[in-house]
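Service request form, structural biology core

Requester: graduate student, group of Dr. S.
Request type: structure prediction, single chain
Budget code: on file
Notes: please return the result as structure tokens.

Sequence provided:
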Amino acid sequence: MARPRAFNTDVAVERAARLFARQGYGATPMPQLTARLNIGSSSLYAAFGSKEGLYARALGHYCEELVHTLGERMAAATDVRAALRELLLALAGADVTDPERVCLLVNAATERAAHAATVERVKATMAAVESVLVDALERARAGGELRPGHEPVELARFFTTFIQGLHVMGNARADRAFLESAVSGALRVLD
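Core staff response, request fulfilled:
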């Protein structure tokens, strides 16, 4: 009879996601992972199969949370322009105020570009982000918030790309004034 797990796998996945985001997959050795998760290597292998399995779960969790949070925020918006502004400023502010905060999705896209499963996860997440934004922008167009000629799909792709660029600049420790100026410039595409 197998022993029950002595640790919470959800907590382990969240901690691993933060560590992988900060350091990257390649720069996170197994001893550091097991120490950070406060589990033995045999427990890690039993729960996740491998470091790669843990990374896939951590990236999956991060991506699901990202899309869920964005979806809730945009679905509740009655003023899409204001909601986008708040979202972008919140992302910029979070990157500035928390030097430990790094976007795992950006890191996955850059560090693991040769790893097919990671690339597929990143692409699927970007498509989901785009879909959330398309829905919000279509509502904005139907409600008269967008001028004729503004295409929700094009705008959603722009903002999906801009969000990732915002994270990159946050990772590069751009200051708040720089990021807020970039947000203001990006929002002008809605004029």
